[in-house]
Design brief:
Elements: H1 2-6, H2 11-18, H3 23-76, E1 90-91, E2 123-126, E3 146-156, E4 167-170, E5 175-178, E6 192-204, E7 214-220, E8 236-243, E9 245-255, E10 269-272, E11 289-300, E12 320-326, E13 337-339, E14 357-365
Parallel strand pairs: 1-5, 12-13
Antiparallel strand pairs: 2-3, 3-6, 4-5, 4-6, 6-7, 7-8, 9-10, 9-11, 11-14
Length: about 375
């Protein structure tokens, strides 16, 4: 009997044995769960933000590499005229002092007097301005540099090809610039025919994406506009190279030896684009030639980033902190100031201060400079 009583429990004891969590225990469990969920959410948010930043950075690098890959081979080949390497021996070229020539009309005057015919200037540019007469795509970036490259194509044109584009017919001793290749000189057995390549690179304030700046070019005999039946040849076509390029700065590496001596072919100084370097190799006292080109590209992200403000100071080309800083790349009064986007007065979400940027630089040796 006593053993049976020892196994008997009161109703209150049985209720305590089957009771669940108390309110306090439930609140503690919920609090711990919420902390874990909040921690996991924060990890996810941070990981997603880091992924977005890495993705943006990778895209900036990719865009910059592509823009450089377009500019570099073109600049490197500037001054290439086919079989001859001296532009002075090419007939039909123009000097800056010449009146407008009929050769190559109407393209010859599209971007300035005799613009594609200035073979004495294989590399030419403007400093902190867009001075060409050919209209920009929408509006040129006011304070960006431009660079123009003139050269022959690297692929010869068959003698039986149709006339029309500006072409260089060259031998090892001379050459001629023509649009009609049926003449005796161009059809000679020792002559090779090349298309004339002229590209004016500039930065436009808008691209195919409205409001996004872009690197563009005015290309002689572009692939689309110049093949239309209604478009006379030769002609210039405006081509978008890479959206997101916000600024272009250029400097020339100049060899003052005139291509002679032990140090010939090496740049002894770098000058801003647009520097007065007329008649480079014809001066008896101070001969000079451009042997290298240094370019800077400022590339920005495709879209603004919420909560991000670009407070970096970008110093490049002739934009120097010693001249001050500016948040506006289009202000003519600030053309030599370093760029700090956070100083922009535009506080809107799409303002320039909310974009990420990458500044890249490349020094390009010109293959066809004398003594190189």
């Amino acid at each position: 009997m006593s053993q049976l009583r020892s196994h008997h429990r009161s109703p209150s004891a049985r209720r305590r044995a089957v009771a669940g969590l108390t309110l306090v225990e439930l609140l503690v469990a919920m609090t711990i769960g919420l902390v874990l969920i909040a921690g996991a959410t924060q990890v996810y948010v941070d990981s997603h933000a880091a992924y977005a930043v890495n993705e943006t950075t990778a895209r900036l690098q990719e865009n910059a590499r592509y823009a450089i890959s377009v500019l570099e081979p073109d600049i490197r080949m500037s001054g290439y005229w086919g079989l001859t390497n001296v532009s002075d021996g090419i007939g039909g070229k123009a000097l800056p002092t010449d009146a407008q020539l009929a050769l190559g009309a109407p393209a010859a005057s599209t971007c300035g007097v005799n613009f594609p015919l200035l073979l004495g200037f294989p590399v030419q540019g403007t400093n902190d301005s867009y001075a060409a007469t050919c209209a920009a795509n929408s509006a040129a970036m006011l304070n960006a540099d431009t660079i123009t490259v003139r050269r022959a194509s690297t692929i010869t044109v068959p003698p039986a090809s149709a006339s029309g584009p500006l072409r260089i017919c060259s031998t090892r001793t001379s050459g001629v610039l023509v649009t009609d290749i049926t003449g005796t000189f161009c059809q000679g057995v020792d002559t090779r025919i090349y298309n004339l390549i002229v590209n004016l690179y500039y930065v436009d304030q808008s691209s195919s994406q409205a409001g996004v700046p872009s690197l563009r070019s005015k290309a002689l005999n572009g692939p689309a506009a110049c093949t239309a039946p209604a478009s006379p040849l030769p002609c210039f076509q405006d081509i978008e190279i890479e959206p997101g390029v916000e600024d272009l700065q250029v400097q020339y590496g100049v060899d003052l030896t005139g291509g002679t001596g032990a140090a010939s072919g090496a740049a002894t100084e770098y000058l801003d684009a647009g520097a007065a370097l007329t008649n480079l190799l014809t001066s008896p006292t101070a001969p000079a030639q451009i042997v290298a080109v240094r370019i800077w590209l400022l590339v920005r992200s495709d879209s603004p980033e919420s909560g991000f403000v670009d407070d970096r100071i970008y110093e490049y080309g002739d934009r120097l902190t010693s001249n001050g800083t500016t948040g506006d790349l289009t202000n003519v009064a600030d053309i030599t100031k370093a760029y700090r986007p956070s100083l922009s007065a535009d506080n809107s979400f799409t303002g320039v201060k909310h974009y990420r940027r990458l500044l890249v630089s490349k020094t390009i040796q010109i293959r066809n400079a004398l003594a190189n």
